[in-house]
# Entry
Amino acid sequence: MSEMRTWAIRSARLFDGTGAPPIDDAVALIEGERVAAAGPASDVVIPNGVEMLDAGDATLLPGLIDAHVHMLHTGSASSGVDSRAMNDRQLLLVGARNSLAALRSGLTTVRDCGDHDYMTLTLRDSIAEGAIPGPRMLCSGPVITSTAGQLWWTGIECDTPDDLRRAVRTLAKNGVDFIKLMGSGGNATPGSNPEVSQYDEEGYRAVADDAHRLGKRVAVHVHGVDAIRMAVDAGMDTLEHCPFRANGGIEYDAELAEDIRQKGIIVSIAMPATWYRLRAEDMRDVRAHPGHLWESRPDSIREMYEAGVKLVVSSDQGSTGTAIDELHLLMAYLVERVGMSPESVIHGATGLAAEALGIEGELGTIEPGKLADLAVVEGDPFADMSVVARVRTVVKGGRIVVRDGAVVV
Ligand SMILES: [Zn+2]
# Structure
């Protein structure tokens, strides 16, 4: 590998991922695995003899980050059932296939929020060693849940604070990057209750305190309002889903949202856009998800957005009906249906997502000194977010890993 190769890429637009407006006619200079300079083509000094890739009418984005995926799942309309029927070898092959598809869709980092027997760690390490192409992975390992709770068949069942501390320590010992706690029940587990917390305050504090003691963040799956409240009070790092479910519907709690904002806790939307958009009729057949929730969920996202809550754009890929390469559907949905600005949406899948994962020192933005992870999309996502589906070139650690829409193997 030519580790210290210096080259440059020029495009009609560049969004650096910090949340600042896009720059027209921009260039990024790459030295080895890092960004050396980026900005308007008129400002960036390109040394003589440096190879320049002209991307034309394209937009240069930081490599996309999906903060909530399930790499071992297919994301088909019957994903949950399919995954439970597969053996370990089949699941790992799904993971390998998803690694390629993720990269090709512009994802250079994913956070896997639900493992089976630590297999995602094998995938993570194989990608890091270069054995197969794929995004950088942060892995929770198996989720922590209550007995018979959300995803119990693939998680670590814990009921008491002692159980919870033991699980956190076991996960850390086995090399996970963060902890995933199932704070409430969920749609994927018949018999669990999405509206009600699986633990009391002491349980949340046991997980948060012990995880933080060991240098691990906690991503907590929360649907019900009471679970969200306890997760916020315990100082959890990211709230996954966070739809404010109560009393058979959605009851947005403005005071709770303000508390989330003040504490700087990041909400990871983790919403498969296909539920709401493309295949809603198919979805009704495979899971009992009340239709009125589909109607009111975008309103609760809009209210959090308008209240200034930090929103990370994550797909929950692997959950029923969203494939790993469909983050662009959610991005377009958030602009068109929820009314978020294109800048906020792309920031939520780049710079802010990196902050949620604690990797913002190295990744998430196109700035001098950062690792050169880039996604080049055809056209202008600030005029039409759906162009994020048209990824032509992907750069990971300064190397082109997707060329003309195909993964370089
Ligand atoms: Zn999930």
